[in-house]
Amino acid sequence: MKKRMMAGLVLLAATTTTVAAYTAPVPAADDSITVYFVRHGQTLLNSTEQVQGWVDSPLTQQGITMARDVGEGLKKIKFDSFYSSDAGRQRETLRVILQQEGVKNYQPRELKGLREVYFGCFEGYPNSEMIAGAAKSLGLKDGAELWRHIKAGALTTDKQIDAISKADRCGKAETFQQVKARTSEALKTMIDQAEAQGDKTVLAVSSGLAIQTIMAGLTDNPARNKPLENAAVVKVVYHDGQYSVPEIGNMQYLKDGKAALEKQGKAASAPRS
Question: Where does substrate bind (predicted)?
Fold first, then answer.
């Protein structure tokens, strides 16, 4: 139970039991811009269940495999531009994805606005401490109760982030409004740049709660409040000043990529007559 509780908060875990929301892609208008947000692959701190916001750690081998698989699954999509934050785990995930897609001579842009939430004095400490603190600030019994709310999508992203900010003994952890301001600016920058360059499809690697914050206000789908697994995809479509979010926490790209690579491996190892 403890490990499942630890995995509950998207920013903290390597994997979660969240059921992803997925709807079949709807043909978009010719002048629309689509941004595919990908959460980074599993990291060292994810695997040791430590808080990781602005503190960074490299991808584990499992995390590299995740990035490779999702890259294979996204191979059918032609991306015009690429973004990540300045965090190493996001850069590395983007590099592996593009390497798997066969993209060369790309010029990624780093936006600090795509960083994960800054968790103040919780950074680097056990996830359990931050979960317990957030639960207390919300008046909940314990971290287990907090996890039940998160899993059900009953606790909105703003309440999650503000509960952590309130519980931070240093008083430095970001509030929801601070995170929303910078992530919204990052999204606007990507859209403005795409319009200026005539780009239609954008790939952006970020982190769990940062992506959830971007979705806040763009969709009423309650799945926006649920934790995102490592390498999950969120699809945001911009058209005529309006946003839609047709895919939330989609793991099918990773699954399809993994299946395709396994098939290729079997074909390569099959005896020839």
Answer: 39-46, 89
Consecutive 10-residue runs of the chain (273 residues): their mean pLDDT? 41 38 48 97 98 98 98 97 98 97 91 98 97 97 94 94 98 98 98 97 98 96 96 98 98 98 81 54
Contacts of 35 (CB under 8 A, 6+ apart): 187, 190, 191, 202, 203, 204, 235, 236, 237, 238
Q: What is the pTM of this model?
A: 0.89
pLDDT, residue 106, reads 87
How many structural domains does the chain have? 1
3-state SS string for 115-173 = CCCCCHHHCCCEHHHHHHHHHHHCCCCCHHHHHHHHHCCCCCHHHHHHHHHHHCCCCCC
Summarize the annotated binding site as residue ranges: 39-46, 89
Where in the sequence is the domain holding 63, given as residue range(s)? Answer: 33-119+174-262
Residue 103 lies in a domain: yes
* CATH code, 82: 3.40.50.1240
Enumerate the active-site residues: 40, 116
